Structures are given as C-alpha cells and as structure tokens.
Amino acid sequence: MKFDTIIIGSGLAGLTAGIKLAESGQRCAIISRGQSALHFSSGSLDLLSTLPDGTPVHTPEAALENLAEQAPRHPYSLMGKENVLALAAESEQLLTRADISLVGHHRQNHLRITPLGKQRASWLSPPEVPQAPLPWQKVTVINIAGFLDFQAELVSGSLSATGSGVHVAELTLPVLDVLRNNPSEFRAVNIARVLDLPENLPALVDELRLLLGSGEAMILPACLGLEARTVAAVEQALGVPVKLLPTLPPSVLGMRLHNALRRRFQILGGLIMPGDTVTGAQLEQGCINALFTKNHREVPLRTRHVILASGSFFSGGLDASRQHVTEPIFGLDVNIQAERAAWSKADFFTPQPWLQFGLTVNNHFQPSHHGECTKNLYAIGSVLGGFDPIQQGCGAGVSMLTALCVATQILVAAEACHEPA
C-alpha cells in the first residue's frame, strides 16, 4: 500500500493533520492503536489560558510575546506569534468545514462552566456548554437518579455563589431502569445512547417539563447529545435553553467531536487503521520510505511523509520507567529533567514538571534521534515537550496548530518536488 502521508495517532492532532492533507488531495492513512484521548475530553478546546508564571490569559494574542519569553521551547514559541494566530483562525475554519458547531474565537477566551460549577477559560466550546456569567436569574439543574458521575448539589452551590437562583431536581425516567440496575453500565455514553433514540424523546421531554419549575434554563449532565439534534429537539419542546455539563469520562461531547472529525477525514478519502501499532520503519537516504505494523506484518506501508501524533503518557506516545522516559516507536530524543527528583513535586495541585516532558524538535517540528533528524518525519500534539497542557490550558491548541503547521510544510514540500497527490 502506498500513501503520501501516514499519521501515527488518531487524536485531535492526527485527525486535524489528516483532514488538512486530504482536503488538498493527498492520500493519507492514520494508524490508531486505541481509543482517542478526545473520548476523555470535555468537548471544549483551549488555546492558551494561563502563562507559565500563573498569569491568567484573557486574550491569547496579547500573551504570546510573554509566553515566548517565559517558555522559548513551547510549540507556540517555535511557530511565532503571527503563525499561531493564522493557524488558530484556520483551525476554526477546518472545524466548520467538518460540520462541527463550536462557539468562541481565538482572539478572546470565554469562561465555560465546569462540571463542578466553576469557571475555566476556553477557546471554543459546544453551544450546549453554559458560559459565565449566566444570563438567567433562575436555573434548574437536573441530576439523573442513580447516576454517580455528576454532582448536581456541587454545581448548584457554585452557581448560587455567583448570584444565580438554582433549583435541583432528579430525572427518574423508567426507560433507564435497565441500565440503572447495572451500575457498571450506568455511564454517560450508555445513557446517551438510550436518550438519543427518537422513540424516547416524548417521555424525556414530559418529565423534564415537570421538573423545570420556574427555571429560565435547564442544565443537565452531558448524558444525551451524541448527535446534536437531540438537545435541539429538547430545547424546542421545552421552550427554554438546555445546557450540558461534561461528566466523568468517557465524554459524550468529546466523543461527538472525535466522531465528526473522523467522519470528515473518511469522507475525504482518508483511511483509518484501528487497533494497529507501528513495529518498524524502513529508511533510505535519510528518509522513512515504509512502515511496518503489527497487523500488516511483512506488508510495507510505503509513504513519502510520516507524522507522529501518538500522544503523551496517557496515550502511550511516551513510556516512563523509574529512571527514563522514552519514545517507544522510533526511540526519538526526549527532553526531560536530568535529576529524577526534579520530575515531580510533592504538592499534587502544583504544576508537575513531568507534564512538560516530550520530544525534542526543531522549528519545523522534526524530532531527532541521537541529535539527527529524519528528513520526512514530523511530530505534533501532546508527544511534544516544552508545555504543560493542564496548567497553561493549551493542549487542544497545541494539537491543532502543530498539526496544521506540519501539514502545510508537507504540502509546500510536495508542491516543490511536484509530488502527485
């Protein structure tokens, strides 16, 4: 099998790169070893929420110069301010083309309400996710009887502290009894698969109408809406805004985002190889010209370019032992703290140094092996080092922007070499 580009990893970074390349006519394949980290995300995307020194970021554009001073190896610093802004705008356009409806803009963060009722700066969010300040005086927060992954009383307490009048009610809907009788199955995604069925909509709406009371809006755990039309139908029937708060993973809103991106990639002709792992590479004149995988064994997957989007520790893109951190596919150079004692801090809530571990790359996002770069190998997303996706609130932005940056480089190189699409 022959491809223009093979991408290792089917998360936000891998799918974004694949869509960009496929839109330009490249034949692309994504090798995916397992579930995307998007399944465990809130469905919102962050660009830059906090500088490394702890300064909150309201307008990312104004903070990028300070970021470059404080974190010169941050992926945004390697790109430069103008490229970051241009690629953020391009990311928004790509999502629109994928029929993904999100609200927000890269020049101004908004504050989304978290599952605990707190506020978190974000770049883009699903329209169902409530934003602060809430525009309603009275809100009804709904829990689902027997559902333990959402604490309505905590949400109510946090929202009440901001001045909103909050009423808590419980949904008992009998159609959920089969799931409710098996606690291990009573999870957000399974509930959504039931509530999203058109035949269950009338009963759902009837009970929610009784629970609404005097509420001007309703907030539920994100246990419906794998397809956005369900939420729209409930809103229309109730006549009030219906908002969703993400629950413990797997996340309905995160899965919906992943499914839409995957669908867009496949519509464009992209090939996804699920449940597969790269086992080796064939090099020629300093370039990778073929990959071998567990499922394809002796059949080489020939390619002109390779993008590593394998994720960080959570996704298996990096491996850690007590003394070493390694990249398991190609043995690439990883930037870590030299002293083992400096990898972590005792205070769990303090930013942890290990979160910034990742591949050493040049300004073109080419990783190195013993200091030498492979000409047609690139790395994108959370496998990169130099940033803290949690403390700095930039994980999704790094994934999408590095993906588009590398995809653009590949397309420019292909055009210069007159490579056929």
Report on this structure:
The protein has eleven helices and 20 strands. With 421 residues, it is an alpha/beta fold. The chain has two domains: 2-107 and 255-416, 3-Layer(bba) Sandwich (FAD/NAD(P)-binding domain); 130-245, Rossmann fold. Strands 1, 2, 10, 11, 12, 13 and 20 form a seven-stranded mixed sheet that branches. Strand 8 (217-221), helix 9 (229-238) and strand 9 (242-245) form a beta-alpha-beta unit. Helix 1 packs parallel to helix 10 (252-267), helix 1 (12-23) packs parallel to helix 11 (395-416) and helix 8 packs across helix 9 (229-238). The chain is globular, with a radius of gyration of 23 Å. It starts with a strand and ends in a 5-residue tail after the last helix. The model has no long low-confidence stretch (mean pLDDT 94).
Provide tags for this entry:
2 domains; FAD/NAD(P)-binding domain; Rossmann fold; 20 strands; 30% helix; 11 helices; alpha/beta; seven-stranded mixed beta sheet; four-stranded parallel beta sheet; globular; 421 residues
